[in-house]
Amino acid sequence: MCVGMSGKVVKVNKGTAVIDASGAKREVSVQLLDELEPGDFVMVHAGVAIAKITDDDADETDALMDDIFGED
Predict the structure, then answer these.
(1) How far apart are CA 23 and CA 34, in angstroms?
(2) Do the beta carbons of residue 43 and residue 59 sit within 8 Å?
(3) Which of 60, 58, 9, 59 is nearest to 35 (CA)?
(4) Number of helices and strands (H, E) in the chain?
(5) Residues ≥6 apart with Cβ < 8 Å to 49
(6) Cβ-proximal residues to 15 (8 Å cutoff; 6+ apart), any chain
(7) What pLDDT, in 10s, does the model give residues 22-69?
């Protein structure tokens, strides 16, 4: 099973971005996306931002992950 994670863009720089994924900062490739800015939300798979999503989508994804992995 492949799992993507949602994250909030903190910084964008030349094809990469730093995202905040539930408090963990990660550098990911954003070469597949156009016009990405700090504050945007993305779906990340295998170190690559694959889609720009809404904050509601990110909240829903986080809630589903909490249900799956038993987080309270």
Answers:
(1) 24
(2) no
(3) 9
(4) 1, 5
(5) 17, 19, 28, 29, 30, 32, 33, 36, 42, 43
(6) 29, 30, 31
(7) 899 999 999 999 899 999 999 999 999 999 998 888 878 778 777 877
Q: For residues 65 and 52, give the distance between their C-alpha atoms in angstroms, rounded to a whole number.
A: 19
| Domain 5-69 architecture | Roll (2.30)
Phi then psi for 40, rounded to 5 degrees?
Answer: -70, 160
Are 4 and 50 contacting, i.e. CB atoms less than 8 angstroms apart?
Answer: yes
Q: What is the pTM of this model?
A: 0.81
Alpha-carbon distance of 63 to 36, in angstroms, equals 24
One-letter amino acid at 21 equals: A
